[in-house]
Amino acid sequence: MQAEKSDADTEKNETLNDVTTSVANEITNLKIEDGSTSSTPSSPGSTEPGSFLASFKAFSKFGDPKSDGKLITLSQSDKWMKQAKVIDGKKITTTDTGIYFKKHKSTKLGIEQYKTFLEELTKSKKVELAEIKKKMANCGPPGFTGGASGVGKAASTVDRLTDVSKYTGSHKQRFDETGKGKGLAGRKDIPDTSGYVQGYQNKDTYKGQ
User: Fold this and answer.
1) Contact 70/111 with Cβ under 8 angstroms?
2) Helix (H/G/I), strand (E/B), else coil: 10
3) What is the pLDDT of residues 98-136, one digit of tens each?
4) Is residue 172 part of a domain?
5) Which domain range does residue 89 map to?
6) At a CB cut-off of 8 Å and minimum separation 6, what does 122 contact?
């Protein structure tokens, strides 16, 4: 009787161990698929922003409806870095990103290759990798420019389009120097029936005796 109980306990423990191992393997596989594991442990100070991977996936799909979000092109990367204000035309330019991106001999990079690309780029330009990743993680989805700058850009466009001093041709004749519309006179030639010849400068100056 004692032997049967011992065998039952052993079998129960083996089953429990198998279940635990299976669950652990599933968790590991999920992490690998999500790209959240690394071959080397991270130090406390090197933890990258949690939204960096999400931003990578979003920009790697930008302009490519067939993309699964796992590979990013140079143009998509430049779009991302411009929106994040990483590419500023001074410290880092599209020429710089092109050089280091193409060193990987591929038109598309996966997340691990892309991290290496950023490390090489920031090292050569002497900028902080962590700061660059932070900007790229927090720049918002593709196409997002922010409220304040968007309003300012719209106002600038309106000012440019309503500046009558820049009008030419027939449009120029529709406004006076202050920008006020001339109405019908600015849109249609009205014949002069005053009796004076064209070009006469002293119209309405004669006073009868």
Assistant:
1) yes
2) helix
3) 999 999 999 999 999 999 999 999 999 999 999 999 999
4) no
5) 50-136
6) 128, 129, 132
Among 86, 83, 59, 82, CA closest to 71: 59
CA-based nearest residue to 72, from 112, 129, 132: 112
CATH number at residue 65: 1.10.238.10
**Distance between CA atoms of 26 and 22, rounded to whole angstroms?**
6
Is the residue at 104 inside a domain?
yes
Is 98 contained in some domain?
Answer: yes
- Report the predicted TM-score, pTM, of the whole model to 2 decimal places: 0.48
DSSP 15-68: HHHHHHHHHHHHHHHHHHHHT---SSPPPGGGPPPTTHHHHHHHHHHTT-TT--
Query: Comparing C-alpha atoms, which of 106, 108, 105 is closest to residue 76?
Result: 108
- Report which of 53, 63, 45 is spatially closest to residue 133, judged by C-alpha positions: 53
* Number of structural domains found in the chain: 1
In this predicted model, which residue has the larger pLDDT, 70 or 42? 70
Q: What is the pLDDT of residue 43?
A: 40
**Intra-chain end-to-end CA distance of the chain, in Å:** 147
* pLDDT value for 32: 42
- Statement: residue 31 has pLDDT above 50: no
Query: Minimal CA–CA distance to 119: which of 110, 137, 132, 138?
Result: 132
In a domain, 144, yes or no: no
Report the distance separating Cα 38 and Cα 27, nearest Å.
14
Chain center to CA of 42? 28
